[in-house]
Give the backbone structure.
Amino acid sequence: MTSLRNVLLGGAALALTMNPLAALADTATPDMAEMWRVIQAQQAEINRLKGELQGTKAQAVETRETLQTTVQHVEAVADAVETSSTGGGEGWWNKTSLGGYGELHYEGGAKDQIDFHRFVLFVGHDFNDKIRFRSEIELEHAIAGEGKVGEFELEQAYLEFDVNRNTQLVAGVNLVPVGIINETHEPPTFYGVERNAVEKNIIPATWWEGGIGARGNIGDTGISWDAMFSSGLELNAGNGYKIRSGRNKVGKADFKSEAYSARLGYSGIPGISLAASVYYQPDVTQGVGDTITGQDVSATLFTVSADTRFNGFGLRALYSHWNLDGADVNLTGRDKQSGFYIEPSYKFSLPMGDLLPNAQFGVFYRYSDWDNNAGLNNKTGTHRNVLGANFWPVEDIVFKIDYISESKESGGSAKNSVNLGLGYQF
């Protein structure tokens, strides 16, 4: 700014000196010596102004060059960070992803307890465009260890390979492709504080096994398929052939009898998802046999489900049925174990100003009916009615409340409770 001011002032002075007659208007006509002095003064001023102008230009060029050098240095550092790794090339952190979910429950009624039911972390890594790793580690009930109420579990740890655009192969510990919530069970994705009782007691979610499998889509038809060869359940007289008690969770699990599962799904119409699945295991006793004949006890599970949504209205429904074949299991009534539920719901936007512009609210009702002793045909089933609501302040956070009324077919007093929950996923 100082140099520019000097240039302007000098220009004004130059304008005056460029007209010697004006400068000397009030004096006598100068002689030749005086004229030469005036001309020399003008030239000296011109030279001075030229020098200041050249200095200003040089300073601007220097500043521009310094800025360009700084930018180049910053870009070089950024490139080095992006490309550096132990083996060169792209860093592993650019191919590794983290996620997770969790849920805290208050269960009223006779239980009257609070429980951080699940804390889960996902870790994934893409080795390249066609091979990836996925895993899920879960802590249940907040604290695990000898004599503690909780468990620390590895629910998933598998490699996935793209055969082509529509087909993938998987190998490792994976979720069995059956039901609605066994593979998608993050708290914001379902209604109710607890997961539904039918998929817990009959399927039994969450259910994972170790093995290999494949899945894919049939072109653009909306038809999908899954197939899996894996470890299986271990049922016997000791655990009463109750399905949920037979999960070994791939922890030094007996593998004397393999299991086969398959599913066919359809989602070609927006808002509609239909599926049917089958699971077969030649011997759920893992080679021990039943206590009467010593023979294998085979088991077959068949499940059909629907999950539909239209203009805020939703409907989930599922039916699941086990057939077990063995002398032991026939006597206990556990040769048939089945259940179903139906769940209508309605979800709508509930914006709350600038703080929560995308908040949503939903209400639901669920009726469940299941029986782990259905083979006895003597009213051993359980009925459960659940009425409640979910509030999503943002898509991946949910607050829940529900009222449960549960009764036995055989009679007796109903169990009632009001429950609260919160959950998240990321």
Notes: The mean pLDDT is 88. The first helix runs from residue 2 to 17. The chain has five helices and 16 strands.
